[in-house]
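explain this chain.
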Amino acid sequence: MKTRRLATLGPEVSVIGLGCMGMSDFYGPADRAESIATIHAALDAGITLLDTGDFYGMGHNELLIQEALRGRDRDRALISVKFGALRDPANGWAGYDARPVAVRNFVTYSLKRLGVDHIDIYRPARLDPAVPIEDTVGAIADLIKEGYLRYVGLSEVGADTIRRAAAVHPIADLQIEYSLISRGIEDAILPACRELGIGVTAYGVLSRGLISGHWTKDRDTGRDFRSVSPRFQGENLDRNLALVERLRAVAERLGASVAQVAIAWVAAQGDDIVPLVGARRRDRLTEALGALELTLSDADLAALAEAVPRDAAAGARYPAAQLVHMDSEKGR
């Protein structure tokens, strides 16, 4: 397994990471035994970065990771945790809390659920509009000094917030959506990260399955996130699936699957970018790992740019009600 370093002074991680969210929340039921087997298979394949959030399944995901790591070398897994999202008993959302006192509280519960004595990367899931980012990062920095955390991360914030955060403490990475059809970070956010020597862990590299090559128009989303995602609705879905077929034509010429090409494209955008794959099953993980065998030439990248132009996706990446609260979307 090849590795990449997050940030100038950040940790060294596998060239792709495993996003564990879907094993507990947002994408319908998941098989617990298969989820744990998938984490085991990822670790055995050399994946070191496991990404979670304390609000995924209201702690279920962290408990799942604890079970998967039981009896294994803790130091072989680098755990990244998002915090701050508030939930209610109906599985709804109640805002964000990134006050310093809340940071310490969230860390305490995560350490217990994960069954570890430290968390490798800790990050607010979103910017709390009521709390200066300097205060949140300062609280994380204090916990690093105390030995409970190793690195500061950020998630879905804009260039100005990134700079303010980095002025308080070095930032290991920004976690943000990035894919062939979600390329907004290229304007200001990615340049800011590179200016400051901050890595990027890219989630949504398959756009929640939309550009995986496995999605079909008649597939039932049930009550998962895709049932409200603009890109999965009506004519938007038709247009986006047409893009997938264009992507499939390129993939077939390369002797790869659509998902493999989409993952390889993200990895090819820079050695400072680590794609997160949200595989919930071993077969999907095996397919994702196949992306590591692809080396995209300049001609391949040009073909992909022609097949899927930067602004070709129909529909926003989140519902409008969520986008308006996302710091990463401000100023566009």
Summary: The CA atoms of residues 112 and 159 lie 33 Å apart. The chain is about 35% helix and 15% strand.
